[in-house]
């Protein structure tokens, strides 16, 4: 059976599940079953999905006409969902079952009758900040981390190709570190900007203008990083070995533990980048290292 002939059930119509639904629909895939426990979301789905069968629990539906099950629930709910599937006694012999967790591997899919070759994890390296009510193209032109059995990989590669996206193969043992990298690239980036807002506010910049003020320098820095790499994009006091400026910065945040801890950690990394760039001498590096202790 060809990829687009397989009928799909999505369990969990949250921020990722809803985006996935619209991307699948836009690319000619058939989603014939949706399961969503949240009452508010469930009522929204009933209005927008038309003829698709929508249920509040897996016990309320029959999966006989589903060839692929996509488990798009929170990491903390995944193990319980697997338990419920086992309790239902679902015939999984010919089915492909995948989950969308970034941190969990396919090993969590210990489902009776499910062949190892048919299970896997399918994690879009993308941020989803709200429920999708139409196709916003969030799964197009991105990288998707996949890991699992032979038949799952074959199916997933077809999905990714139809999404006009790219794949990255992850080993099951590396999923947790892979997910950490994703968190640093997005979630902690938001935290970083929150700290930027607090520092800028202390400098007297109006809170409603802070992100607008720093947007050009942020965008240019990110552009430089993607074009030239991290070390060649480094500028500022660490790149030029400016010990006086580093001392001054630390004097201003000595009573601000969060600001200081972040400055020390990122400052040490900036020193390593400066050394790699060969923009400072060994003497300058050692002097700033002493300041950062």
CATH superfamily of the largest domain: NAD(P)-binding Rossmann-like Domain
Q: Roughly what is the average pLDDT, rounded to an integer?
A: 95
**Unreliable segments (pLDDT under 50, ≥5 consecutive)?**
none
Number of structural domains: 2
Any idea what the shape is?
elongated
Strand portion: 5-15%
CATH fold label of the largest domain: Rossmann fold
Class computed from helices, strands and strand pairing: alpha/beta
Share of helix among residues? 40-55%
Strand order of the largest sheet: 3-2-1-4-5-6-7-8
Gyration radius from CA atoms, angstroms: 24 Å
- Summarize the helix and strand pattern as letters: EHEHEEHEEEHEHHHHHHHH
User: What's the CATH C level of the largest domain?
Assistant: Alpha Beta
Count of extended strands: 8
Largest sheet: 8 strands, mixed
Number of H- or I-type helical stretches: 12
CATH architecture of the largest domain: 3-Layer(aba) Sandwich
